[in-house]
């Protein structure tokens, strides 16, 4: 586990980092896997999902405030490990900004200062904000099927507030993939 909440700063400067960002059940993991395969690179899975599934399986409990820092550290550990193993491109299924948004939403504006501080540093080339036009897929960790539009607005507002570069991905799986590839290809050409 990471001792401090901090991205590895000694990664190659030419490394392009793309983060898939948005409400639950909007196809981020599927797209992350597809993009990593297409570009023959690594992707960073969502640590929170694994962490919370284990917690549910063993204790029948969902996320609690005391889980936020361990989740953030686990996410950064995964990202840092993979950042050091790729040269050109890293696809992140999520990042700390998403954890910040969820924390503030579920805990009435509360988010640990350590998470807020690291989440609001822009260490990504582009955020691909996934729209809510995908079918809802229920599971034990997803709980807001009727709040998708509200959540999308909250996620987009956070990007605007931080001034982070982003593009919205809409449409079916093929359309999203095609648009994401177009965006990433442009970034790779600039680099």
Automatic annotation (TrEMBL):
Keywords: ATP-binding, Nucleotide-binding. Pfam families: AAA_28 (PF13521). GO terms for molecular function: ATP binding. It comes from the Bacteria. Gene3D superfamilies: P-loop containing nucleotide triphosphate hydrolases. Residues 17-176 form the NadR/Ttd14 AAA domain. This is ATP-binding protein. It comes from Aequorivita aurantiaca.
């Amino acid at each position: 586990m990471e001792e401090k909440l901090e991205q590895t700063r000694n990664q190659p400067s030419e490394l392009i980092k793309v983060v898939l960002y948005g409400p639950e059940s909007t196809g981020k993991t599927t797209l992350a896997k597809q993009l990593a395969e297409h570009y023959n690179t690594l992707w960073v899975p969502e640590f929170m999902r694994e962490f919370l599934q284990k917690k549910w399986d063993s204790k029948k409990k969902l996320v609690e405030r005391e889980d936020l820092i361990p989740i953030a550290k686990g996410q950064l550990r995964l990202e840092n490990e993979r950042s050091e193993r790729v040269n050109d491109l890293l696809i992140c299924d999520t990042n700390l900004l998403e954890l910040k948004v969820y924390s503030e939403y579920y805990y009435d504006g509360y988010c640990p200062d350590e998470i807020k501080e690291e989440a609001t540093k822009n260490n990504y080339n582009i955020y691909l904000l996934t729209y809510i036009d995908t079918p809802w897929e229920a599971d034990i960790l997803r709980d807001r099927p009727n709040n998708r539009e509200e959540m999308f607005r909250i996620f987009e507002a956070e990007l605007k507030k931080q001034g982070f570069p982003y593009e919205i991905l809409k449409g079916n799986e093929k359309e999203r993939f095609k648009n994401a590839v177009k965006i990433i290809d442009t970034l790779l050409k600039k680099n």
